[in-house]
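User: Structure tokens for this complex, please. No commentary.
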Amino acid sequence: MKVMPPATATWMLRHLLSGGRNEALEGDLLEEFQRRCSASWYWRQVLGAILGFSNVLRAVWVTVSALVFAAVWVYGLSVMVAFTAHSPLQMVTGNWIPYQEPGWLAVGIVFYLAAPLSVFLAVARNLSLRAFTVGLGAGAFAIVALPAFQSHLAIPVSYFFEYAHSKHWNVMLWLCGYQVLQGSMPLVAAIWAAALSKVKVGGFDPQEARSRASE
Amino acid sequence: MEKREYLGEFELTVMLALLRRGDDAYGVPIAREIEASSGREVGIASVYAALERLERKGFLHSRKGEPTPERGGRAKRFFRVTALGLRQVRKTQKTLVRLWRGLPQLDGGQA
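Assistant:
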């Protein structure tokens, strides 16, 4: 009796492969599956084909996942601050974070550095000292470029809610744009730094992928 | 035109496996040949990615075979090394042999 590979994996191989269907690859995987009879092997091969067959697709996938991560981090942080600014915790501590105190200032810097650094590591997928240093540099650049981001994150967000309540839409839109700009800067800096670093990890080289795409 | 006319490590492995298999070389036997010599699992898609790169460089030529029932009616794609590809393998071999010679760090370093 002929053993059939997982139907979902076969469907993914047919429909999600970059550059359209590859009949020879599908046939090869089916042939080898008949010999091995291992669903896990078949899944590994299919996922490897979808994510790794095209370096360009892989580069896009890594970048998109990094963007989603960064968006959740940066904007999630803004929402969290907006809510906690009106919480009992805020009433006890007074202002959101007293940055005038050195300890809190350090916490704030680490907090804001974490976003670009995480994005950088996600893009570069490299935990080497070099990657860490460049990511840290990108985060520092973001902080220097936007000192307001460091000192008063909570204030524009609380203004946002205040003006939304009083229906001053123009002010609200301006603040919204300000937030987007603030959130984007560390992200742009991190991706830029990752692209410049030319790191090559696990056989994946962003520079090489770009040169292949342009051929 | 010297544009990208070099062989990467995996590309060279694929070329050598292909030369070993001869005219019946398609994805599965090439992957098996590499697995047998390296002792590790090889992604068939990775082999295809390398084969397509090598074909674009002019080092390989491919032809489509007949569809077979055991492959769900899907045709095989047979590959063979071109004269240019063979020259490139020899060139890479010479370079590696020159680099290999006289290295005290490598036990039996003579290629």
